[in-house]
UniProtKB/TrEMBL annotation:
UniProt GO molecular function: DNA binding
PANTHER family per UniProt: RESPONSE REGULATORY DOMAIN-CONTAINING PROTEIN (PTHR44591:SF3), STRESS RESPONSE REGULATOR PROTEIN 1 (PTHR44591)
Domain of life: Bacteria
Residue list for modification 4-aspartylphosphate: 53
UniProt key word Transcription regulation: yes
One Pfam family in the UniProt entry: Response_reg
Name used for this protein in its record: Response regulator receiver domain-containing protein
Amino acid sequence: MKKKILIVDDEPNIVVPLEFLMTRNNYDVQTADTGEKALGLILSWKPDLILLDIMLPGMDGYEVCQKIRQEKQFSNTRIIFLSAMARSIDIAKGMGLSADDYITKPFANDYVVSKIKNLLADKD
């Protein structure tokens, strides 16, 4: 069965290439452009991994991560922050919310794919 990845970002120039890349690497992909939509998809679709931007309209990525981590049923869901917020304090805050990784924008596609493969391999 294909692993499921949810891409949460409000920038089409990030979402479209990532969606293509994940599909090309044989993942089942859904996208959300707000934190609220992401939480709805997480509950109904139960992704294996979430690529999560921080700067989202409404509920930010930190809050989405916090809500996911409060739910026991999603304790094994992998979360990678993808953010332009590259200060060490931003990264520390994300990792402090029990994210599995934090990748700053701009990023290399191969790097993101390798991180995803490693995290999902650990989940098996």
